[in-house]
Structure formats: C-alpha cells, structure tokens
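ok trying again, last paste got cut off:
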Amino acid sequence: MGDFGVLNVSPVDDVRVKSVREFYKDSTILLTGGTGFIGKVLLEKLLRCFEVKTVFLLIRPKRNKTVDERLDEVFEDVVSLWLPNANIFDAIKTSPNGGKPLLAKVIPIEVNFQSDVVVSTADYHRLLAAQVEVVFNVMASVKFNEDIETAIDTNVLSSRKLFLLAQQLPHIQTIVHVSTFYSNCHRSHIEERIYEDLPFGGFENILALFRYLTPEEKDRLKPIILGPMPNSYTFSKRCAEVMIQQQFAQLPIAIFRPPIVTSAYREPTPGWVNNFNGPAGMVVPVIRGQVYWCYGADDATVHMVPVDYCVNALLAVGWDNSQRKRKIKTTTREVVPVYNYAFRDNVFRNRDAGALLAIGIDSILGRIFGRYTIHITSSTFMRKLFINWLLLQACVADIFNKLTGKKAKNYETIKRVVALEDSTSYFRCHSWTAENGNVRKLWDRLPADDRQLLPFDVETLDWKDYFKFFVSGVAAALKRQSAARQRIRQQTPSNVGKRV
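nice, full thing came through this time. structure:
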C-alpha cells in the first residue's frame, strides 16, 4: 500500500457541527454483526431513537435458514423473564402500525466472506444507489480457543473484504470498526494508538507459512506465534487493527475498543443479555444455587461496560469520527483514530464481585450469603477442590435424574462453565491502565441533549444499581435458551431408528 500521509486528525472546527441526532437522521447505514449481542442492541437503538433512512444488515445464511428468516429471528428475540411475551424490539413494536414502518427500514443483504465477491452484483448496485454513509463493523468470532487461521479468517480477512467494499461506496462519511480493549493485553498500559509490532512480519506471512504446515505442526507453532497474547481471539483483533492502519488509513475509519461487554443497564431493559460469554456464564452455578470459586487475582481491576453504554459510545464515536478532518501531507502516514472505552475511576476489583452479585439474588438469604457463592481465589488448590466438588455434585444429580426419567445434563453444564473460566482466567489475573483521552474529549464535546440520549460515561455509573438486575438477567437468558432448544426439538423431524 502507499504511504498515506496525514499530519493532523482533529475535529472540524470551521463548520457548524451537527448533533448526533441530526447526523444519523435520514442516514443510510451498513451494519455487520447485527445478529449478535452488541449488534442487536445497536440495531434497536438506531431504529427507536434515530430517524435513520435505511439499515442494510449484512447476514450469512446459517443452519439452512435464509437471511430473511434470520432477520425475523432477530426481531423475535425474547428479552425478559419478567415480561415473558416481550422481546428486545418491543418498544418499537408498540409504536404506530405495530412498528412495521420502522422494522421495514432494515434490509437484509446476503453476504459471503469466503468469496472475493462478498455481495451479489444486484446488492452492490443497491448499496451504491442508496448512498451508504455510515458503516459499523461489529462482526467478530469471540471463541478464545480457535486455531489461528480460523480466527484471522473471521476477524481480519472478512473485515478487510468489508472495507474493500466500503472503498467503492463514494458517500461514506464514517466507518467504525469494533475491536477490543484487550487487543494489546500483553501490555500493562494501553494507549489510544495502533501497535504495529506483529510477529513474523504480520499475519499475511503467518498465513503463507501455515499453507505448508500440517495441523500438528501448526499446533506446535501456535504458542510461538501468540507469544505473550493469551489466545487467538485477542491476537486476531490485534492483527485486524494493524491491517486497518496499513491498508485502509485513507478511509474515514476509526477503531473502537470496548472491554468486557455485559448485560444491559437500562436499554432495552435492565439486565438483558443473550449470551453466556464472560461474567454471564460464570454466574450460572450461582443461579443454580451452587458455590463457585474462580481462579484469579482478587485485587485485579475489572474492566467491563453494560451493552447499552457500549452501543451509546459506539454511536457517539461514529458521529465524532465523521467530524474529523484529515490534512494530507507527504511526510507522514495518516493515523487511524483509536477510542479506548476504558476508565480509571469508578472501577471495582475481583474481590468485590461476590458482594455486587449478591445484590441481585432474589432472596433474603441469598442477599446475606450470596457474596460467598462466587469468589476469586489465587489458590490453585482451592480452585481445584471446589471444581471437583461441583463435578461430584453434578454426577450425583445426573444419576438421580436418570433414575427418575429426567435429562442428565448437570455434569456437562459444569464442564462448560469450567472451560469458560479456564479460557478467561488470564483477564482475572491481570490489571491494565489505559489512555482514554479521545473518549473523554468525545463525552465533553457532546451536546447536553445527546448526553441524555447516549449516556456512556462509566465513571458516573452506579454499579450497585446495575447489579440489581445482573443475576436475574442471566436467569432470563437461561430460560430463553431452554425454550429455544425446546422449539427446535419440536420442529426437528423425528430421527427414530437413526444413529446420531
């Protein structure tokens, strides 16, 4: 790539700056990852709070379902244990005409990131004619233990194909790529810049090398490539940032780095979550009335944000990035702006987790003793002791269930929780400090009305109030998951006589 040069990247100061609401009004948006956790909340917020013109949602066909069927599933996502007939788009569906005019603004586009031509010719011309102005790249594979090739394919190469498509859309005003605060977690202090010191000269050299290796050789080489990085997910997100800086810095693109994203604080409803990655999965034993001890450092700082705060910040970053001006110079490269969505103040530590979770346990005894049901310990012996005790309990429960004709799944559930805990232990054993000047300046620049619309200042968040709904939100997600599996079993043809 050429050496794109920009000496200064700063907010526009010579024209009237639109508010966030004005910026998104009548805008045409291209969104990836809209079927995922953050993407659903982003989509709902755009439709409910901003008078957008169109949202093109890039979706892959999956499990023999078309993109239209998958979009219908997004709109039917059940949201709450307290409102069992509600879903994340309920506020929209109670608007005039059942919300159909708003939901009709979402147009699914079939995408194939395994192909060089990611969308059909007809859909490409549709995007051109619609004059897409905003791109949110939220798609990602968050599986920590994937092989390096698969992680790079999803988190780097697919994003590159998206940005190559965006290059051909002449009306783009802003592109926001959602990365992660942990893309450089091998550093104790993380600045708002892209670190380009990738091993082996970059991910393309790694992929070229892998073409000549056997699976066994790749496995042996994986720890050397990852180096101090804990897993292929964080490594691939780091590679994606470098790819953006080196190949797409000429685009109006910004990188947004959220930390651990957890259940909602206020929107779409308190406690809403639809996955069991991270903290949500760790409290499953607590919901089942079990004690669970996690491995980690009790004084390590927890960097987490509610999903609605994350989406609010993401929308604000899209607006802020559109206001920047780039002065081309031949002496230096253009610098892609980075927003570290992490804070130094109003954070809690691992040792506080039990007491905070206990706030949301729905019983007097639970609130009194709940702080002891989940605990962070640096003792590997104590951790193994509790894990073995849980597995023993699960075995006994499964034996009893089999004798009474019920399903035996307790052991597998605990094994999944233990696997999740193992894969995330690195983040409980370390603390980080971060520069967040771009995020702080962004909050200060927001007009008062936009601050009301898009609260994202974690330094003012009441964590005790937040955790009132955390446990019940995860319990609701468990209930939704169980109901969804039951529906799938009812819809699946009988396999009587077949060996599965």
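cool. The mean pLDDT is 86. The CA atoms of residues 101 and 353 lie 43 Å apart.
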